[in-house]
Amino acid sequence: MNNITLLVMAAGMGSRYGGLKQLDAVGPNGETIIDYSVYDAIQAGFNKVVFIIRKDFEDQFKTQITEKYAGHIQVEFAFQELNALPNRFQCPEGREKPWGTGHAILTAADLIQEPFVVINGDDYYGGESFKVVANYYNNGTDNFSMVAFQLDKTLSIFGGVTRGLCTVEKGSLSMVVETENLQKAENEVTSDRKINLDGSEPVSMNMWGFTPVLFDYLNEMIIEFLEKEGNEMKSEFLIPSVINTLIQSGREPVHVLKSSSSWFGVTYKEDKPYVMGEILKLVDRGIYPQKLF
After folding, report:
1. Which residue, 61, 76, 6, is CA-closest to 38?
2. Domains of the chain by range and CATH?
3. 192: which of 58, 135, 181, 252 fits an S-S bond (Cβ 3.0–4.6 Å)?
């Protein structure tokens, strides 16, 4: 088994959710969604986890989340802060919005020298997803990858969601388009774009597989981003945009991996009881122990 790291993006406050959902308990013994992701990663052979958080809730995060992982997996922290920018750039006065997922991943550059998998801290991806991507990198590949999920299995009944709609050609990703306000209708999925969707389409849920060469690309491309959009209050340097640029320029292929695992997350507060129920079903089926750690 080669070294492989899990990189968890957990720096954001859930604006629609109304709180720090990464620390919300959903399991029978107070487990968070992050706990299930770390458990699944350990089972799949990951040997390190790096959490991207904000410095101001480091102590709370350690107390509620990571202290329980001692003896199970190596834990490191990276901090996403508004002022953590290349030397000649400054955060505009009054900006409060984080710089986006590309900036978040870049904060971990000094901590990772091996293949790594990026996930959202508030999404449940399922054990098979971690095994699929771990096996991919244990076969010695140095390509980028993405685990694709089926659109209709990623929607919320409580409101519209944003998903990265994927175009896949011969097993490789050719484009990701961030699409907002996706909602299940009677025989279709509607969105803010004028496209026909039946729910079977592959989507990105920000479960990416990378090698450390990604950090070289991010260092180059964040400068281009800041030169163009660095003075805006809500601009974001997003990993799907980075991936699209790398694909379209021919610099990096991205292999699409498929998982039959169920995905669920807590976009809205109303999603939490559903997530708790799904976790309990998995515990009752013996997929997870009553207490993870």
Report:
1. 6
2. 5-145+204-249+262-284 (3.90.550.10)
3. 181
Tokens, residue 193: 């774009």
The token duo for 151 is 């659109």
| Cβ–Cβ under 8 Å, residues 217 and 79 | no
Task: Please tell me the distance from the alpha carbon of residue 91 to that of residue 229, in angstroms, as a whole number.
Answer: 11
**DSSP symbol at 152:** G
Farthest CA pair distance, the chain: 54
Element (H, E) at 86: none
Give the 3-state secondary structure of 163-176.
EEEEEEECCEEEEE
Q: What are phi and psi of 124, to 5 degrees?
A: -100, 125
Distance CA 116, CA 38 (A): 13
Distance from C-alpha of 173 to C-alpha of 167, rounded to nearest angstrom: 6
Q: Rounded CA gap, 2 and 46, in Å?
A: 9
* C-alpha of 183 from chain center: 21
Extract the tokens encoding 117: 């998998």
Q: Are strands 264-265 and 116-120 parallel, antiparallel or unpaired?
A: unpaired
Pick the closest to residue 46 from 141, 172, 143, 136 (CA basis): 136
Question: Could you tell me the mean pLDDT of each successive run of 10 residues in the chain, 293 residues long?
Answer: 90 51 82 96 97 89 92 96 92 93 96 97 93 94 94 86 90 91 88 89 93 97 96 94 94 92 80 91 96 93
| CB neighbours of residue 158 within 10 Å | 14
Question: Looking at this protein, which amino acid is placed at residue 44?
Answer: A
DSSP string spanning 3-54? --EEEEE----BTTTTB-GGG---STTS--HHHHHHHHHHHHT--EEEEEE-
